[in-house]
């Protein structure tokens, strides 16, 4: 499929994903990250987002599973180009602080 024929744009897909994540946890905040939190500056076309939530370990597992399902649907819509990767984290963690400082809230 030609890029101009894409049914959904990347910004639209990210906004949709952020809205859908809020249906899983209405208190969650979603941030676009300008880097891969595990590897530093992104060297590929992947898009990294951080999902900040106040959850205990049991709920984080459930939230992560829900996010994985949403990511699969969004990545299919985008034709895996770019590929969206989510990093769920507790709101008070180091990644959450970095996301608030360096990311863009969706």
What's the layout of helices and strands?
Blueprint: H1 10-24, E1 29-33, E2 47-53, H2 57-77, E3 84-90, H3 94-102, E4 104-105
Parallel strand pairs: 2-3
Antiparallel strand pairs: 1-2, 1-4
Identify the notable features of this structure and list them briefly.
single chain; 106 residues; alpha+beta; four-stranded mixed sheet; 3 helices; globular
Explain this structure to me?
42% of the residues lie in helices and 20% in strands. The protein has 106 residues and is an alpha+beta fold. The protein has a 4-stranded mixed sheet, with helices on both faces. Helix 1 runs antiparallel to helix 2. It is globular and about 35 Å long.
- Main sheet: which strands, in order across? 3-2-1-4
Total strands: the figure is 4
Portion in strands? 15-25%
Principal-axis shape: globular
Query: What pattern of helices and strands is seen along the backbone?
Result: HEEHEHE
- What is the helix fraction of residues, given as a range? 40-55%
What is the mean predicted local confidence, pLDDT? 89
Content-based structural category: alpha+beta
């Amino acid at each position: 499929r030609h890029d101009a024929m894409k049914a959904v744009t990347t910004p639209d897909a990210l906004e949709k994903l952020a809205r859908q994540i809020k249906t899983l946890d209405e208190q969650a905040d979603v941030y676009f990250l300008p880097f891969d939190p595990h590897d530093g500056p992104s060297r590929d076309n992947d898009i990294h987002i951080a999902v900040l939530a106040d959850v205990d370990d049991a709920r984080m597992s459930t939230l992560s599973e829900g996010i994985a399902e949403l990511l699969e649907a969004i990545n299919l819509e985008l034709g895996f180009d770019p590929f969206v990767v989510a990093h769920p984290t507790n709101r008070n963690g180091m990644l959450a602080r970095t996301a608030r400082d360096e990311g863009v809230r969706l």
